Amino acid sequence: MAKAKRQVNKTPLHRWKWVGKAPQDRPMRGELIGRTKEDIIEQLAKQRITATKIQRRSSFSGRGKITNVDIMIFARQMATMVRAGIPILQALQAVSESLKKPAMVALTQQVMEDVSAGDSLSSALAKHPKQFDRMFVNLVDAGEQAGALDQMLERVASYKEKVESLKNRVKKALWYPTTVMTIGVAVTMLLLIKVVPEFESMFQGFGAELPVLTQFTVNLSVLAQQYWIYALSLLGGNLVLLKIVAKRSSRLAYQLDSLVLRLPVIGDIMHKSAVSRLTRTLATTFSSGVPLVEGLETAAGAADNRVYSHAIHEVYQDVTSGQQLHFAMRMTNRFPALAVQMVSIGEEAGSLDVMLNRVADYYEEEVENKVDALTSLMEPVIIVVLGMLVGSIVVSMYLPIFEIGTAL
């Protein structure tokens, strides 16, 4: 019996759509998270609802991948529960029942099982390093020891909110021009493969030599028709291969991150984003009572860019050997002079966490301004480029018709 129960518990959670009847035959419908149909029927029975139809949602919407936003919401909800004086186990149970993503519900239930077995909350969270990073665990541990768990959870949630906001701004800077240009190239290829051949067959009946621009477009269309599949496969294959090699080769990954930092405009945004995130991480850990050395280790692990991760490792080594933080940062030649100066003032005034937060706020605002400026700059550039791509094809197709009309 116990063995069977363990096997059931290993069954993954899914989201189920149900239709049923409440007392007095009132029709009802909704969604629940459970392992099997029997589990859903049992949950509905507790609510005095008789299920008439239960259907598991497709795998596309299935368990769902746990994101940083999910962890942020978890931390925010747990902080609210703990502040209200609810015991940890009951708080975890309440959070589990409020979550809508099956994978997150399963994770919360695993944490509940570990806590009920005698583990502290920080120890239970540490068993899931992919979802709860080192900083999350360290702050929860500090909160448990200081009796300020709700404050630490709230601090983690605020930190993750700001980091996600910064990530979204950087993604906007990267994806906006890339997406628009990709659409432009796709439209151009569609014209070359589908539209130009129709004109070409018409031109063959003219029996006259085509203008240079028209002939060039026709030749380009022939190449596009013959090799577009191979070109697309080669591009996709190279991107996948580069991603695989970068995962296995730390040297190549470092060079790619370094290349991104040297790009015009985008590189400056990535620089400021890395500085903001690292100083925000250090400020959060240091203000929570975590030693500076441990905070540097956490910051190195939280860096998205390997160049700055390496720089933080250098800072860690120098600080461990007795150097001041601002001097160690200056020695890496990676951190802006303003950031180093503000950290120096913070160390001298005994308010390092305050200054680190101000540095993070300043560079977050810089990133936002840069992204807005890039978006405003790219809009006219993209319009001109797309106009030239599509317009040149359209003009080249109508040139022979114009010449015939002039001759007549």
TrEMBL record:
<keyword id="KW-0997">Cell inner membrane</keyword>
<feature type="transmembrane region" description="Helical">
    <location>
        <begin position="380"/>
        <end position="401"/>
    </location>
</feature>
<comment type="similarity">
    <text>Belongs to the GSP F family.</text>
</comment>
<keyword id="KW-0472">Membrane</keyword>
<dbReference type="InterPro" id="IPR001992">
    <property type="entry name" value="T2SS_GspF/T4SS_PilC_CS"/>
</dbReference>
<dbReference type="GO" id="GO:0005886">
    <property type="term" value="C:plasma membrane"/>
</dbReference>
<dbReference type="InterPro" id="IPR018076">
    <property type="entry name" value="T2SS_GspF_dom"/>
</dbReference>
<keyword id="KW-1003">Cell membrane</keyword>
<dbReference type="InterPro" id="IPR003004">
    <property type="entry name" value="GspF/PilC"/>
</dbReference>
<keyword id="KW-1133">Transmembrane helix</keyword>
<dbReference type="GO" id="GO:0015628">
    <property type="term" value="P:protein secretion by the type II secretion system"/>
</dbReference>
<feature type="domain" description="Type II secretion system protein GspF">
    <location>
        <begin position="74"/>
        <end position="197"/>
    </location>
</feature>
<dbReference type="InterPro" id="IPR042094">
    <property type="entry name" value="T2SS_GspF_sf"/>
</dbReference>
<protein>
    <submittedName>
        <fullName>Type II secretion system protein F</fullName>
    </submittedName>
</protein>
<feature type="transmembrane region" description="Helical">
    <location>
        <begin position="227"/>
        <end position="246"/>
    </location>
</feature>
<dbReference type="Pfam" id="PF00482">
    <property type="entry name" value="T2SSF"/>
</dbReference>
<feature type="domain" description="Type II secretion system protein GspF">
    <location>
        <begin position="279"/>
        <end position="400"/>
    </location>
</feature>
<keyword id="KW-0812">Transmembrane</keyword>
<feature type="transmembrane region" description="Helical">
    <location>
        <begin position="174"/>
        <end position="193"/>
    </location>
</feature>
<keyword id="KW-0813">Transport</keyword>
